[in-house]
């Protein structure tokens, strides 16, 4: 009886210790979870290779794990909830990509954070817009193998289109045309080879012509320089002298105009008073000249006595 009581007591103590240990482990787990941050990522691509517990890395450094993968109301998107360490810098500009591998497992890579940017959080106003499931949302971008797989259909379509066009280019009709073009090219090449000496002579003449044109241009330049020098040495001084002459003539005209202006009253008086007196004087001189002429004629005919006495009458002899 006592042995059975001891076994019951030992079992009870062990059970109590196990319950305490389980409660401690749960507390530790909750404490660790409380120190992590959760974010949602909405991928518009296949999440093949991801699973609950897949690693999450920030710039290649392991920092958390995938907590949940679920479908959304929009069949184009897959929601992936991750849990990362509290000290992970999930800032505005951070984006998530799925990094595949050849082993089949995939990881989530976080990068693009900018220093000084604010952290990604749920806004206080209208939080359901950016946090539809109660946690902040990290934007997703296509990258790595996922981006290659997403772009594979377009790439295959372009390759198919290019192949069709290449086949059209190499059709029988186009091949004949290409053959004709190549034949014409061969004939043209042969003709050019035959005309090689003539082409060389033409090039030599062209080189000579260009040299002559260069010499002519140089001579024209020298002539322009000489003309310039002549203008500077001859024409400009002559122009300067002509300007001085014109200025001197202008000054003389101004002086003459002033002299005429000053002499105008004297000229008026000369024309009104002096000219009539000069006319009378000339008349008197003319009369005196006539009188002197008459005296001279008397002297010639009768001598000096003709001036003081009467002329002698001629003697007449009577006859029978």
TrEMBL record:
InterPro entries: Mce/MlaD (IPR003399). Keywords: Membrane, Transmembrane, Transmembrane helix. The chain crosses the membrane at residues 7-29. The keyword Transmembrane helix applies. Pfam families: MlaD. Residues 43-111 form the Mce/MlaD domain. PANTHER family: BLL5892 PROTEIN, MCE_MLAD DOMAIN-CONTAINING PROTEIN. This is Mammalian cell entry protein. It comes from Sphingomonas panacis.
